Amino acid sequence: xxxxxxxxxxNGDEExxxxxxxxxxxxSVAGASVGVAGLGAATDSASAAGFTGCDDWxxxxxxxxxxxxxxxxxxxxxxxxxxxxxxxxxxVHGWLGLETSTDQxxxxxxxxxxxxxxxxxxxxxxEADTLNYWRAEGRTETAGRRLASWLSTVxxxxxxxxxLVGHSxxxxxxxxxxxxxxxxxxxxxxLLGTAADDDSVCTDGRYAYGIATSxxxxxxxxxGDDDSVCYGYDVQxxxxxxxxxxxxxxxxxxxxxxxxxxxxxxxVDVTDTVDDHCDYAKPDVGCVPRVVDDFE
Length: 296
What we know:
Elements: E1 6-8, E2 14-16, H1 22-28, H2 34-37, E3 66-68, E4 75-77, E5 87-92, H3 101-114, E6 121-125, H4 133-138, H5 140-157, E7 161-167, H6 169-180, E8 188-192, H7 208-214, E9 217-222, H8 227-237, H9 242-245, E10 265-269, H10 288-295
Parallel strand pairs: 3-6, 5-6, 5-7, 7-8, 8-9, 9-10
Antiparallel strand pairs: 1-2, 3-4
Helix pairs in contact: 5-6, 6-7
Pfam family, one: DUF900
InterPro entries: AB_hydrolase_fold, DUF900_hydrolase, TAT_signal
Region (Disordered): 1-21
């Protein structure tokens, strides 16, 4: 992030969440079970490009555009240039991604430029840097409401096409944003390796209503080689992850059929191109070419 943010947790204890070293955090959980480390672990990939893993991002410029969702009154910095733009994207990071939020957004921006999509990307930064995965997951609803508030304000004052891109728990934040929106402020949503239950986008799931009423086209890019979601999320949530095999509305031995997904929702299998949980938005090793195709 551009500057550190102090936050207060549910017990009233203030914690400096933005400048905790990601490598230190990952090292701290190295001895924990895959259930705790799964979605934040930096994994190695066999990609020939070498630009892979959750610690490897391009360095964003010092004054990169950013929406601060860590306070109850979301604010944005370095966004004056957006007033002249017809279109821009908002990137939402996942668990343990607060420290590298702007770097991740800038990496996506460069990957988009490689595909001739030259609209700017804004980083949306939320309170995700905690060793407790379940605490981070619990904060996605608040982050989504705050992002919806900011987007609604922008939509009221600017006539720009807005696209959301969310990675891992950031995809969950995007889905919470659609639930909270009271207008059609967003054109499309790209979910990248999203950490949410695979039936949560079905008719009886938490997010179906928001998808159906937001007016946004929602694309879920999922990979069977994303071990963090395919295995880590399963252990942590006792449910299959949306970012692994896409939506599953068929129910199980213990649950009824969950209906169908909204017509605005599309699953996109990118297993052939994405080998690592943090590769979706990166040049060469990710699925950005397909994301840009779906922007059209």
